[in-house]
Amino acid sequence: MPDDRPDPRRHSKFQRLVDAAQKEPPVVTAVAHPCDEVSLKSAAEAARLKLIEPILVGPGRRITEVARKSGVDISGFEVVDAVYSQAAARAAVELVREGRAEALMKGSLHTDELMAPVVSRDTGLRTARRLSHCFVMDVPSHQDALIVTDAAVNIAPSLEDKVDIVQNAIDLAHVLTTEVVRVAILCAVETVNPKMVSTLDAAALCKMADRGQITGAVLDGPLAFDNAIRLEAAAIKKIHSPVAGRANVLVVPDLEAGNMLAKSMSILAGADAAGIVLGARVPIVLTSRADAELTRLASCAVASLLAAHRRKSLTAAIG
């Protein structure tokens, strides 16, 4: 008979993220268009746990009505009125540009609607880095959290794009206090095949790390998924490296592969996936309406830790 008892390992890594973020001041977060019960409750709960200090950006009357029907107390939150979702996204970005918010959070609008003003060349939040998405995944059967990138922003990244995707993930891993960051460049095979561009990219990324063009981690690739995370699989293939079988960052060849990998881990392995966009001036919390509450809170916790790190880095740079 199946064992229906809850797995004590489930959520443990996410709970540690929340605990760590609660040691930092709440990050002021512009929440774009929180006009459904899920997004509004998520912002309110994150505020209750002192992970964020939300500014609710959207149609004020609609937000108030959703709060009333859902039993959510928003009396302590600032509301910035914006009549529709695209306007809310633009207003949320402007709050960051004005220095009033240190993070963005997606409400009940499409990701494309939120990201359009973010990537605007003149009025957005671009930096020298390319934007990329990371899933921080809590897999119950795996000892450490896994970062999977990119599964939501870059559809078919070039080698140049992948340099930023990898560096963004490495920087995130350090903020999450990963002691040794081991990056596996995932492909369908573990050998370089000139007919498979992803394996050529993997080899180039590893050499770029050797030359100091990518820093802060040990890279290896191409690696298949099994020999990236299972020592036994790496041993069978006679792969000897500090990454094979021990990877904590998984870089996929394209968005489709990343999306399928992350969803497979969630559905078949019971994993939870906190989502964050990196490479902008501030962290951007991307959640799905299907996410569990702790997953949404973990996403806010990651944003809080990133914002705290940025704050400390700026203070150190100033003096």
Report on this model:
The chain has two domains: 103 residues, Rossmann fold; 153 residues, 3-Layer(aba) Sandwich (Isopropylmalate Dehydrogenase), CATH 3.40.718.10. It starts with 11 loop residues before the first helix and ends with a helix. The protein is of the alpha/beta class. It has an eleven-stranded mixed sheet, sandwiched between helices. β1, α2 and β2 form a beta-alpha-beta unit.
Distance between the termini: 63 Å
SSE succession = HEHEHEHEHEEHEHEHHEHEEH
- CATH hierarchy, class of the largest domain: Alpha Beta
What is the oligomer described by this structure?
A: single chain
Percent in strands? 15-25%
Biggest sheet, open or closed, and with what strands and sense? Answer: 11 strands, mixed
Helix content: 40-55%
Question: How is the CATH topology of the largest domain named?
Answer: Isopropylmalate Dehydrogenase
Low-confidence stretches: 1-6
Shape: globular
Structural class, please?
alpha/beta
Summed up, the domain count is 2
CATH structural architecture of the largest domain: 3-Layer(aba) Sandwich
What Rg is obtained from the alpha carbons, in whole angstroms?
A: 20 Å
**Lateral strand order in the biggest sheet:** 3-2-1-4-11-10-5-6-9-7-8
Query: Total number of β-strand segments?
Result: 11
- Integer average pLDDT: 92
CATH superfamily of the largest domain: Isopropylmalate Dehydrogenase
Alpha plus pi helix count: 11
